[in-house]
Amino acid sequence: MRHLGRAILLLIFIIGSRGNAQTKKDLENKVIANSKLFKTNIDKAYIELNSLLKESLQLKDSLSELKILDRKCRYFYRKNTLDSLIICSEKLQKKSSEYHNAYYEAMSDIYMAETYSMNEFHDKAISYLSSAYDLLQKENPKSEKIFYAKANVLSSFANIYLDKNEPRNAAKKVFEEIHSGNGIKDTEERKRFQYLNYSNLGNIYTRLDIDSAYRYAMTSIRFKAQNFPDDQSMMINYSVIGHYFKDKKNYQAAISNFHKALHINKINGTDLNMSEVYKSLQEIYHNLNIKDSATFYQNKIKEYDLQALSSKYNSLKEVINRDKKEEKKSLKNYLIWIFIGLGAISCIIIYFVKRKTKSTNDVLNSETSSPIPVLSETILSEPVSTETILPETYHHLIDLLEKKDPAFMFAFEKVYPKFRENLLAKNAELQLSEIEFCALLKIQLTTKEIAKYTFVEIRTVQNKKYKLRKKFEIPTNLDIYTWINQF
Description:
74% of the residues lie in helices and 0% in strands. With 487 residues, the protein is an all-alpha fold.
């Protein structure tokens, strides 16, 4: 359960100008209604967003436009569709910068940080969160909206620490949120804020101490208002309680709470943490020897993981392409300054050449006869990997291939977690099918074996190898298996 429930995203609304005040007021009411629907059924709320966005553009209502873009980002985050999240985050970033809205610009940085962190670029994620915090620090510290945005930064920091498998540091960030929430004057609003925080804390403590996790989940439930609908935080609470009873081998209580979490998921549409719920139910039914139910949740795990894997692959391509653009832009600016510097030096030299006497010129000529140092980048290639996998792991992968089980790539990436990332760094235009083919080469399958397991002709495999050579510009005298083994 790596994801945390988000802190409150406070939304404000504006009153339109006199010319179209009523029209803007109507849009404002629609956005408010959509916000309420989003809390109970994010899928239905999402369907309305494109038409609302179009209406905000027609009315030139920039604030409503930003709210809707932000809501789309939250939808993609909760559905765990990282590829759509990064694209939507970029749109929000561009528009908020254009409209000089620091709050939503900070929120776009938070969403971008989540995407980078889930793709294991933790340092880059932290830089986005630092940028978000710097933006918020310049705003009115007494603003409620800015307070909640800062709370979101802390939540995102906690997420990154969980991604890095540092749950204690993640817990520290949530405790900071809890402490900051004590300053909220409105009692009901303070309870709502702490309801979210203690739910997050329970989620984190499932990795540290299951008894504490249970206690924090129950604390969160006590803070929840009776008339408030069950949401993502309540789904997390039921999941944590389910893990607690599973640990205590009270399987019936565990199943009951896990199914409550699934019920909220079905109604609300939030997909975060569902994989962990499926895995727990699969284990319980396996232990109870209820084979049909165990198989059902095993298939749900595969379905969820494959969807997440595909989304992560597409988002990783976006991340790498985005970084390359930034690097090119940075390099271009760097080269411009070098040329400006060299131009200035040349002017100075010419100036002194004209002013100095012949003897001075001779000295100058002797001093400048040495070549000017040229800046160069040394590219260090990684040593060829000599890693091997355990025989049982290899046989498990082969077994998945023989069964044409789509979970093969998920199992493969557990063994080689950086393989896909490193390949895409070499060529960001790779298709998922090409990465899967490279995975077969990585486990040293011969041409005949690949043809056998993928049910294609040997010539087809040979053609794929040839195309890979061209795409990666692999020298003809270098064995393709030797080359692929470096990743």
